Amino acid sequence: MEYKGYKIIQKDNRVLVEGIKDFNLVHTFECGQCFRWIRQIDGSYTGVAKGRVINVSFCNDRLQIYNSNVEDFTNIWYDYFDLGTDYSDIKKNIVNDEVMKKAVEFGWGIRILKQDLWETLISFIISANNRIPRIMKSVDKIAQVYGKEIYMNERKYYTFPEAKEIANSTLENLEVCKAGFRCKYVHSTSEMVERESINLGNIEKMNTDDAREYLMKLPGVGPKVADCVLLYSGTKKDVFPTDVWVKRVMEEIYFKKKTGLKDIQKMAREKFGRLSGFAQQYLFYYARENKIGI
User: Fold this and answer.
1) Mean pLDDT, residues 273-289 taken together
2) Is the pLDDT of residue 192 over 60?
3) Which of 2, 29, 64, 228 has the fewest CB atoms within 10 Å, counting from its CB?
4) SS3 annotation, 14-52
5) CA nearest neighbour of 281 among 22, 30, 9, 21
6) Position 244 confidence tier, pLDDT thresholds 50, 70, 90
7) Domains and CATH numbers, the chain
8) DSSP result, 272-287
9) Is the pLDDT of residue 105 over 70?
């Protein structure tokens, strides 16, 4: 069957999607935007998202999604993998200097995932001043302790829990997830979301500045975490998440001097506009992998 320009084939317990361009699994899953995708020996990735566990592989413009079906592809994975966005056009619009040209050529296959907003929020609260392997372990442990069991090939996996599951727990029990000082932020945020002191469903309707300020009412959420949540949930693409690492990169590549956060954000808005989030991902991945700014 055809679906929005792609050829879709159901074959046993897998879906084949043909005609996908500007997509690379390593670039997408290892650019710092997600924490529940694990690379397998054969180069495929297994991950838990949207209450499902799947294995994905990609070769010659063909995406294979194992443990799935056409209905899930059209209802979930098409949006999750941002397959409705023309990344070739985005690249043309943000390549406005030699630095961006190199960054885009290096990370040409990045796609910004449309992850669950709640899961992204908790994941990036945990990410503060933390390393990716430890973030992945903590997020996975939260799923094991509070999530629901799901299976693929008789192996057990766990969905990410709802706010109420964490809110109804104790801080002491949550600390088994080894997120350190961030546990109290995760627990308090879960309580606020469960009590609806903060309604995450309102965020998509807000403009970017209001959405950022709204998220920053939550414990453990500063400007950088808020922007990461907005970008990696696919909610707002005009943000430019700036942590110490990105700040250092921007100073070395563009400003050639120590620069304040406000100036970096201003430059990103002027240079990239509504595509700032895409530009940030290409720049961040390029700089991190090439150890620029270290």
Assistant:
1) 93
2) yes
3) 2
4) EEEEECCCCCCHHHHHCCCCCCCEEECCCCCEEEEECCE
5) 30
6) confident
7) 2-84 (3.30.310.260), 117-232 (1.10.340.30), 244-289 (1.10.1670.10)
8) HGGGHHHHHHHHHHHH
9) yes
